[in-house]
Design a protein that fits this description.
The protein is an all-beta fold. It has no helices and eleven strands. It is globular, with a radius of gyration of 13 Å. 31% of the residues are buried.
């Protein structure tokens, strides 16, 4: 099994930056697809970004501001968030699956517990 632990969330003012980390442990592999999702209060969880073999996919709402990267040696997925907006406020989740990364959250098998990101205006 794979365990995922997110970290790096916190409170930041609009325009600020945060870097989220997702540390994976257990039977991990570079062949595991990983991605970031987020859920704001009262809203459905939505796709944020995924990184698979050098190819990245971003939600339109975060393009140009967020950067997802992966360090396979450290089994860690990162999400660099710049120019944060209040609408970015959400619990951010890391997810993993056996296979390629995908924007479809229901295809992911493993999930972290989430890290809170709050952006003040």
């Amino acid at each position: 099994q794979v365990q995922l632990v997110e970290s790096g969330g916190g409170l930041v003012q609009a325009g600020g930056s945060l870097r989220l980390s997702c540390a994976a442990s257990g039977r991990t592999s570079a062949n595991y697809g990983m991605g970031w999702f987020r859920q704001a209060p009262g809203k459905e969880r939505e796709f944020v970004a995924t990184n698979t073999w050098g190819t990245t996919i971003y939600a339109d709402s975060v393009k140009g501001r967020f950067t997802v990267s992966r360090d396979n040696a450290k089994n860690t997925l990162y999400l660099q968030m710049n120019s944060l907006k209040p609408e970015d406020t959400a619990v951010y989740y890391c997810a993993a699956r056996i296979g390629v990364g995908t924007t479809f959250q229901n295809l992911y098998t493993y999930w972290g517990q989430g890290t809170q990101v709050t952006v003040s205006s």
